[in-house]
Backbone:
């Protein structure tokens, strides 16, 4: 793989990954409400969700989403419904925040599963890997090694991005009172619900 092509992929991935989405919303609110350790337990779920979406895309699921309106609609409905559910649940719990000094780090496995589901149930993730990454594969080189390099690079950038957001949110939480935390949670809840509605309205 040409070095210049890889650098282009890195820059494009940085712009895409750094843009806050549903997963980053969950990380930030978890880090603020329950501490950075609880948020860190979500990161393996996000990593595995991206990895699973990548593998499924390369296995043909991404192409199937592009060519099958029925399958795309089903995935879209499931992903959108899950985001709306999470947003509604977050809004309902925003009035019962745990004081900063009493944050809990229980249900770590549930947090990881939640993060995995948000990542892998987004049909746009599957289509993204199927349509975006091949654009950076050189026709003059072997396909599989290049795909492995690109996939590893993307996952690595995503991992660093998630850790960065978690640490920044945790530091910001030290300066937030409960009322401000409640506002942050409600904004995050609206973000998840609106994202779910937007996904629901996306056309093939």
Residues:
């Amino acid at each position: 793989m040409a070095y210049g092509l890889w650098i282009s992929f890195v820059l494009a991935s940085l712009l895409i990954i750094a843009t806050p989405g549903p997963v980053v919303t969950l990380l930030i609110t978890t880090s603020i409400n329950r501490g950075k350790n609880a948020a860190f337990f979500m990161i393996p779920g996000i990593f595995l969700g991206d990895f699973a979406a990548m593998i499924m895309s390369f296995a043909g699921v991404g192409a199937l989403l592009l060519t099958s309106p029925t399958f795309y609609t089903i995935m879209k409905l499931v992903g959108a419904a899950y985001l709306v559910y999470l947003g509604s649940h977050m809004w309902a719990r925003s009035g019962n925040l745990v004081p900063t000094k009493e944050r809990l780090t229980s249900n770590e496995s549930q947090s990881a599963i939640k993060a995995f589901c948000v990542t892998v149930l987004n049909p746009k993730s599957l289509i993204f890997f199927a349509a975006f990454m091949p654009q950076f594969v050189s026709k003059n080189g072997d396909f599989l090694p290049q795909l492995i390099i690109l996939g590893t690079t993307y996952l690595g950038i995503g991992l660093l991005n998630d850790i960065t957001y978690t640490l920044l949110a945790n530091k910001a939480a030290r300066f937030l009172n409960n009322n401000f935390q409640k506002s942050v949670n409600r904004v995050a809840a609206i973000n998840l619900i609106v994202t779910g509605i937007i996904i629901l309205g996306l056309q093939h």
